[in-house]
Amino acid sequence: MAEDPSGIRGREFFCSWSGGKDSCLALYRAISSGARPRCLLTILAEDGRRTMSHWLPVEFIEAQARSLGVPLVTRSATWESYEAAFSDALAEIAAGGTKDGVFGDIDIAEHREWVERVCGSAGIAAHEPLWGGERSALLDEFIGAGFKAKIVAVRDDILGREFLGREIDRSAIEGIAAAGADLSGERGEYHTAVTDGPIFAFPLRIEAAAEHARNGYRFLDVKVS
After folding, report:
1. In a 3-state reduction of DSSP, which class is residue 47?
2. For the sheet containing 36-44, what is the strand order?
3. How far apart are CA 51 and CA 60, in angstroms?
4. Which of 89, 70, 75 minimizes the C-alpha distance to 23?
């Protein structure tokens, strides 16, 4: 059994789920430490068709949840109503008896402060298994454990479109570093979609349908095949 730096061993928890590598590694660490996932929580765009940050289709997130064997809880929101929607979901989760939440933040203090504030208001303890981790070490752990993820979004002013669709491997990481981007994309330099790994019952096969430019990002429109 893995170490339990966030003190969650033996507890049931929800995981704030983007579909990307950091939330997945946080989930993996929590499970490895002996905690039990009760549900995943994903906030979707207002129309309920895609995730807010990674712009992944809800069908992909649902397929991830099925492979993980963990129920999915969603809410739809705008950025202006995000906190209210998140808090509404937390109230439902807490009412079901889950009092712990797992998040994939690494070191952005304002993110952790927000998480602790909204969770605290719902009577939920927030846990950050990746907090303070060194970027290269976290990526090595992710890859070494056998997880697979593809880059599905890049910030136009930092990474080129040639990164879209690339597997997260050491070659891609070297390219991200050479471009001067944060290796983990902690400030949104890029986003990923996890397709397989040791906690997945079956791999997800995705195909790229198109590219879209939106709010300074270029997104890869993926479909589960």
Report:
1. coil
2. 72-76, 36-44, 12-16, 100-102, 125-127
3. 10
4. 70
Where along the chain do its domains lie? 12-127, 139-224
Pinpoint the alpha helices (H) of 73-108: 82-95
Which residue has 């079956």 as its token pair?
202
Q: What strands, in cross-sheet order, belong to the sheet with 148-155? A: 190-196, 148-155, 217-224, 206-214
- Cβ atoms of 104 and 186 within 8 Å: the answer is no
Asked if the domains 12-127 and 139-224 are classified in one and the same CATH topology, the answer is no
Residues constituting the chain: 225
Per-residue pLDDT tens, the chain, 225 aa: give them: 565 656 788 899 999 999 999 999 999 999 999 999 999 999 999 999 999 989 999 999 999 999 999 999 999 999 999 999 999 999 999 999 999 999 999 999 999 999 999 999 999 999 999 999 999 999 999 999 999 999 999 999 999 889 999 999 999 999 999 999 999 999 899 999 999 999 999 999 988 778 888 888 999 988 887
Architecture of the CATH domain 12-127: 3-Layer(aba) Sandwich (3.40)
User: Spelled out in words, what is the top-level CATH class assigned to the domain 139-224?
Assistant: alpha beta
Cα separation, 153 vs 189, whole angstroms? 8
| pTM of the predicted model over 0.85 | yes
State CA 32 to chain mean position distance.
Answer: 17
Phi, psi of 110 (to 5 degrees): -65, -30
